[in-house]
Amino acid sequence: MLEFKSYFRVSTFFLNFNTSTVCRWLKETEKENREPKLLQYIRKLEETGLYEKLLELLLYKVKEKGEERYLPLAKVYHALQLELEMNGISVGYHRFRQIVKAIVVGVLGKNWEEFAHKRRSRGRAQRISFGAVARPKEVLEIDLTGYEFEGKNYSLILGFDLYTGFLFPPFIVENKEKGGVGSYNKAFNSMEVALYLIDVFKKAGIPKVVKCDNEKILKSQLIKEGLSRLGVRLSNTYPYRPNQKIIEVVIKEFKSFMRLHRRSAESIEELAQLAVESYNRNHHRFKHLSEKVIPAELFKGYSRKADETLISTAFVETVERTLKDGQIQIDNLIYQINYPKKKEKVVVKRLITNLKEVMVYQKSSGEFIGVAKLFSKPPVEVETTVEFKQEKLRSKRIDRRKKKLEEEHARLSYMEKPAVSLEEIADGEPQISISIEELESLNPEQERTEESQPRGLTLEDL
């Protein structure tokens, strides 16, 4: 060490340079000879076997709504973060993005701007902000969306706690309506929305406010009256105000997690469950929000709890019918009650969770008449009004499909019938057979005028 210091001092003396200049030269020489930091990370990825997995996630794409969608870089980092740390590669998202850029440009030879643009959310440039939005407590925000999986279209109802960012598991139905994923609102009715709210309220408690957009099935009379009975206020957002609907951001984030887990899921239910768990484990930091909130994993439900029976009986279907000879018909189901009058205008109320009985009131006075019991038999394994509606829609779809197939079969059968050509008739070899009974049925004594004779070849010519 002493020899190096003495040599260093002698060198600076004879070269007539100060010590700091010589130290800077030595550091720059050492830096030039050292391997670049990003190249070190890439080499370490190759040694640990994560390089191939990173390329697979970067190039993985799915087809949704007729467009090819790639995984966002943040989701790729989220999928590899734990494995990177286990292999001694502790990098943040900014450094990870630099590593990906070096691989895309240096190894794959692609344009970085084009590569990053494909992973941005659609409509990002057209997004308009009206300032930060408040996130009050005890508010449940719900919305509808569609998703395509394994060649089938599905519709989902999603619930989201506004303050904590906790995402509830969705309600899923297969969408067989025309329009595919885009017609997700047609696949649901208000009863299914009420059924989803009942499930959320039973598990998490009753919030103070339910917030939604102006979709008809979300603000129907069934939903309004049911929430009013539970003491919940229904709040509708203004149209074209994206900052008032945080759940729109949540749905995009949720779908990106669905793309991440798509290869490992065997069903849409399993895929949705994996995406919800990943979303709730992730820290939600929306840039357009200024208010600090608690993490989603600390959400323990709403403060107000209620009995499950009260929650189930809150949502009631109300219809007007005519009571004839003690019978009422609703959705091809007949209910029977003992009533002296032969004909009466009544108001019928039926719980969406109970198909077997309805409550009957006089329309004129509002007086309670009694409870009408189900007289006709519903389809097998159908207990609730929602299940009956779904079974009815399914039967209609089957009937429409059956009718369409019968028409197609008749058309194909008509096209497959052999036709007799004029050439065959002219050659004297017509491909037509006439039985003796058919010849005897003809009347040879019938006289025809020249004007009434048919044009073309006659039976005698044949």
From TrEMBL:
<dbReference type="InterPro" id="IPR001584">
    <property type="entry name" value="Integrase_cat-core"/>
</dbReference>
<dbReference type="InterPro" id="IPR012337">
    <property type="entry name" value="RNaseH-like_sf"/>
</dbReference>
<feature type="domain" description="Integrase catalytic">
    <location>
        <begin position="132"/>
        <end position="303"/>
    </location>
</feature>
<dbReference type="InterPro" id="IPR036397">
    <property type="entry name" value="RNaseH_sf"/>
</dbReference>
<protein>
    <recommendedName>
        <fullName>Integrase catalytic domain-containing protein</fullName>
    </recommendedName>
</protein>
<dbReference type="GO" id="GO:0015074">
    <property type="term" value="P:DNA integration"/>
</dbReference>
<dbReference type="GO" id="GO:0003676">
    <property type="term" value="F:nucleic acid binding"/>
</dbReference>
<feature type="region of interest" description="Disordered">
    <location>
        <begin position="438"/>
        <end position="462"/>
    </location>
</feature>
